[in-house]
Amino acid sequence: MKESGNFEFDDVQGLLRFGYGKLADTCFMLLKIADASAARQWLSTAPVSSAIAIHPPPDTALQIAFSVQGLRALGIDESIIDGFSDEFVHGMTRNENCSRRLGDIGHNAPKYWKWGEGADVPHILLLLYARKGGLDAWKATVEGEYFSQAFQLLQYLPTSDMGRTDPFGFEDGISQPAIDWADRHDTDSHANDRYTNLLAAGEMVLGYPNEYGQYTARPLIDLQKDRFAVNLPDAKDDPARKDFGRNGTYLVLRQLEQNVPGFWQFLDKVSDSIPEKRERLAASMVGRERNGTPLIAEHIPGILPKDHGNHFTYDLDPKGNHCPVSAHVRRANPRTGDLPTAVTGTGAIALINRLVKILGFGQKPEEDLIASSRFHRLLRRGRSYGPVLAPGDAVKPDAPAAERGLQFICLVANIGRQFEFVQNAWIVNGKFGGLQEEPDPLLGNREPMINGNSTDHFNRPTSSGSMQKTCHLPQFTTVLGGGYFFMPGLRALKYISALPANGNGGSS
Ligand code: HEM
User: Fold this and answer.
1) Å from CA of 329 to ligand 1 middle
2) Residue 478 CB contacts under 8 Å (≥ 6 apart), including other chains
3) Distance between CA 240 and CA 246 in Å, rounded?
């Protein structure tokens, strides 16, 4: 297969490289396989978009991902399934402990979900993208022959075009990791004392070295046992075997309902209905102003107030006087390097400090708790849903209630180390960066800690050193469904669609 530059973009689904932001009409379909043979037929001709850059960009795109149940229903052998990660194989709702760690308890519990649990686990996720007004025609083209015979529609996940704004009214999709497609970045620990936004491709794409310089476990196929695997890429770390995972990724999907009137009315109440106060509190919960400006922008030299980019860290704001430590964006990506700030730099003192830290002495609690960001990044590809409700209207007592929220999607090569870690250790966990009993203000489920202490507050230090405490936060977001999917490379997709009716049974 042809390589584009150094990377096999023609074997990669486009979502790994593009957000398809210009394709504002989207529809996400959760399918069950009704007839495996018709499903494979449909898959063999599905017009799936690759990651090759085309100019001008196409007007439509289609992406496909499978749950483990879907792979099994299509006849993928258990020896291949065994090569996937436990998180993918056993799923997002695999046991109570996992649900607790992901914050899926109380109103978020899987038993209340609209999909993703028990009989409502989807087999296939289809992501359709089109330019405004083009979705119906694209959907008809995509469905084509075999579709109605092959699949049952489990859920049609709504999305709506809110521009770059999320339902609460904040600009979203600003910060993303940059992927080192050209493989120039040094993953050695000494090269990464400080935060960097550039990530090894293997953090997002299977079959390439990750930030540890290693290959993430994935299904490798022995050609002796499976002659159908012949057109799959070779495994770079095990050339005698074929790589079913290479150029694929895991896709995490969570349907998160947002109570927009509830959010703004609560903030209005605790801000004595003073609009500026309300805005400041909302921005400090998110960690950016509504137009996307980072909260530390005006305080830290070198950051342009309107620079929406990623060119900042929290190093000069260790106590969160400008951007609270608990703010959503600071928790979701603390922008930490491999060593705490005070230890980076050059010279004899820095060297001694570094040795002291490596040996584990003199660690402050907040330094212990925040791991290096480069091992826990997410490539976010979600879309909002529901009707737009501007904050100024949402504060009114008669604000129209409606289903609104985020179809949260992220792509990762390691579900446990990336999505589950961020969701658990940084978002849901009350202990973060020296904070106690204070989860993410936007996403917290407000369930008490195991010791019975409440988690429904948000602390905002002021520059004078005092703490502004907001108490009795209601739950602003609720999980309505979720699942883990494998988004294969295009050659692996061909392999799936070419499986014989009795499973892969391809022994020669
Ligand atoms: C309804 C739920 C959510 C809302 C309203 C929301 C909102 C936002 C907003 C407004 C931003 C700032 C824009 C940007 O930096 O791109 C952001 C950033 C981010 N969010 Fe969320 N988010 C939600 C759920 C989640 C979840 C579930 C996760 C992960 C498990 C997550 C991870 C992130 C990350 C990694 C960033 C970028 C932080 C950075 O690099 O600075 N978000 N989110």
Assistant:
1) 6
2) 107, 108, 256, 257, 259
3) 15
Name the residue with the closest Cα to ligand 1, atom 14.
174
Tokens of 396: 């009114």
Q: Is 265 helix (H, G, I), strand (E, B) or coil?
A: helix
Our answer on whether the CB atom of 175 is closer than 6 Å to any ligand 1 atom is yes
Query: Would you say 169 and 391 are in contact if contact means Cβ atoms under 8 Å apart?
Result: yes
- Judge if the beta carbon of residue 256 lies within 6 A of ligand 1: yes
Report the residue among 102, 107, 175, 256 best suited for mutation to probe ligand 1: largest number of ligand atoms under 8 A from its CB. 175
Q: Check if 20 has its Cβ closer than 6 Å to any atom of ligand 1.
A: no
Residue 502 to residues 89, 242, 243, 249, 444, Cα–Cα distance (Å): 21, 21, 22, 26, 46
How many A from CA of 141 to the centre of ligand 1? 33
Give me the average pLDDT of each 10-residue run along the chain (508 residues): 69 98 96 98 97 95 98 97 98 98 98 95 98 97 94 96 95 94 84 88 98 96 91 95 98 98 98 97 97 80 60 90 95 90 58 58 58 95 97 96 97 98 96 92 94 93 85 98 98 96 52
Query: Which residue has the least CA distance to atom 38 on ligand 1?
Result: 329
DSSP 323: S
Nearest CA among 307, 215, 246 for reference residue 493: 246
Among protein residues, the one with the nearest Cα to ligand 1's atom 13 is: 172
Measured CA to CA, the distance from residue 143 to residue 43 in angstroms comes to 10
CA gap 360, 349 in Å, rounded: 17
Report the DSSP pairing between strands 198-200 and 178-180. Answer: parallel
CA atoms within 13 A on the CB side of 30: 24
Q: Tell which one of 101, 260, 328 to mutate to probe ligand 1, the residue whose CB is within 8 A of the most ligand atoms.
A: 328
